[in-house]
Each structure stands twice: as C-alpha cells, then as structure tokens.
Amino acid sequence: MSRDLCELKEIDEKVKNELRNIKSNPKASFEDNNKVKALKNNIYEKVSKTFVYNLRRLIMLEATQKKLAKKIGVSEDLLSKYKSGEAFPSIETLLYICEVYNISLEELLSTPLTAGDIESMATNNISEPNIFEDKYYAYFLVTNIAKEGAIHEGIIEFNNDAVVFKILARGSVVKYFKGNCNASEKLIDFNLNSQSDGAAYISMIKPNINKNKYLGGLAILVLPSDANSKPCVQKILFSRVRLDREMYYDNLKDLLKFNTEELSRGSIKLSQWEDETAYNFLQKLI
C-alpha cells in the first residue's frame, strides 16, 4: 500500500497547487474553463483513489470482501467494482459506511485511513492504558554540525506510565531522561527530565492496541542539541526491533528529515503520510 500512498500524496499536492493558482487568479477560471474541468477531474481522481485505498483497509478489517459487502449492504460484485475503481458508491452508501465505522465523510474520501485508525475500529477502545511493549529502539538525527548526517540510537523503556529515554553512543548511555506519558484522545505526550541534560519532550499521534501492540512510528522530539544545548525540534522514529543504521541509513534519513517546498511556513507538523510511511517500512522488517 506504500505505492498507493505515494500516488495519493502526489495527486493531493497537484490538486493543492492547482487550487492555489486558481484562488490567486480568480479570473483564470472564467477565461479558461478547461482549467476548471481539469481540476475537477483531478479532485475526483483524488477522492476516488482515496476511497479505494480506504475500502481495501476496511476489507482487511473485516477479513473478507464478502463480510464487508454484507455489512454495508451491497453485493460482492458491486463491492469488487468499487475496489477496482469501475464504480463509485452512492451518497447513501458512503454515509452508511461513515455511520457504521464512526468516521466522517471527509475522512473516508480525503484522508487515507492509518493502521491505527483500523486498530481503533477493531477494538472500539481509545482509552486503553497499556499500548506499548516494554522496550523500543529510537532513532533521530544528530544535531552537532560536526557530525551532521549521522543518526543517533536510543532506547525507550515503559513501565506502566513511567518512561525512560536513553541516548546511546557506541553502546553506552550518554544521556538519560525519565518521566511519564499522558494520553489524550488523539495524542500521547512524554514529559522527560534529566538532572544533567535538562528536559526532553516527545509527542506522537496516538497509536492503538492490537494483537502485537504498537509496532512503531514517528513522533516529534524536543531536545537540547548536542552542540550548544539550545532547544531543537526534530523527528524521532520508534521501532520495536533494533535497526542496522548503516544498512538502512538512506531509509532512516528520508523518514527523519523535514521536507518543504515552501521557503516560509507558519508551522511544521508531523503528517499522517509520514507516520504511515514509517509504519509500512517497519512492518516489512518484522
């Protein structure tokens, strides 16, 4: 499904750019109706592909196409056409799917469902206290300019709500933070402190429990930088298994770096695309 996500991301960016151009030059839509028609087609393609992606997720949730078809009140043949893109559901069917799975129409048609979303639907429980394994490996970029491009390795250990975050160098612990984690409906925050190195803060999209618990994914890390102890914001990758940093260097660097086409932005957010891409990468290794 990672290829599908890449295609969806490309279409999404294309639509956003086209909409931005038309909004910045409203007269263009009156002067060239073909541009509007092309944009409408691209929007429909985005919606259609997103729905097909989400439909496949729901089939995985229900285990078989037959079960999903029965649950949403359509024939298997029609569901197959939805899945292949040959047909698109009526508004009644779309609204019914939203009601059954407790999601909005916007989410169903414009936002690819994540593994966490599917797990949440399966368990119907967003307040479970024990969603993590006891130990995860963590990876994030080195902030020291002299070592730019290198990747730190750390260990994050859980004991109920207590959390320990160790940063390693050549197998030895060089920084040690401890604290706790607090969950809201959508996020989990880690508030960590060290007597010698100050405070660290981690925030992630809330994962959901399944048979194997949390596999891994991306979070935002706020940490004093190695070079001058000034606050630094970066991505951090959680992984249930230890990764060979040399073997997967390119993959890790792509996952951990920030990408932006704009020179100036009001804020930088960890996107669903990035977290899902990280999850798919880790899933292949386990």
Automatic annotation (TrEMBL):
Stored CDD domains: HTH_XRE
InterPro entries: Cro/C1-type_HTH, Lambda_DNA-bd_dom_sf
Pfam family, one: HTH_3
Protein keywords: DNA-binding
PROSITE patterns, alphabetized: HTH_CROC1 (PS50943)
SMART domains linked: HTH_XRE
Residue intervals of the HTH cro/C1-type domain: 64-108
Cross-referenced PANTHER family: HTH-TYPE TRANSCRIPTIONAL REGULATOR XRE, TRACRIPTIONAL REGULATORY PROTEIN-RELATED-RELATED
Protein name: Helix-turn-helix transcriptional regulator
